[in-house]
User: Fold this.
Amino acid sequence: MPIDEPVRRHTDELVLEVAAVPAQAAALREVLAKWALDRGLPRELAEDLKLTAYEAMTNVVKHAYPDGTEGNVMTVTAAHDDGHLKISVADEGRWRDGRRPDGGRGLPIIRAFAPEASVTSTPTGTIVRLAWPCPAL
Assistant:
């Protein structure tokens, strides 16, 4: 009797590790929007993806790392898998609860515009996961 082949899912993935600086966040939001449009996400939802991913990246830039430290990175992953476009933004910084005088609207925006959103924080970093339904082309 032959052994069944394992179920294999096709994953279309983009992984980018960049410096946690404003210019990289701005550039990556455009890359992600184009990537999503190329995979069939409707333009309106691609704009939502662009906004929410940018908010997550901006949170890394502003809040993940102590002021004055060099060499900090964020890892942005985009995957088209199981009928969804999934974006994650990860850092190696420390989560700091509480509102800040220079912000505090990022997570509410993320939760308002992404159909699925979660934030996981540990002592070794934070990851924001976002997802939009998008059937395969």
Observations:
- The longest strand covers residues 73-81.
- The chain is about 35% helix and 30% strand.
- The mean pLDDT is 85.
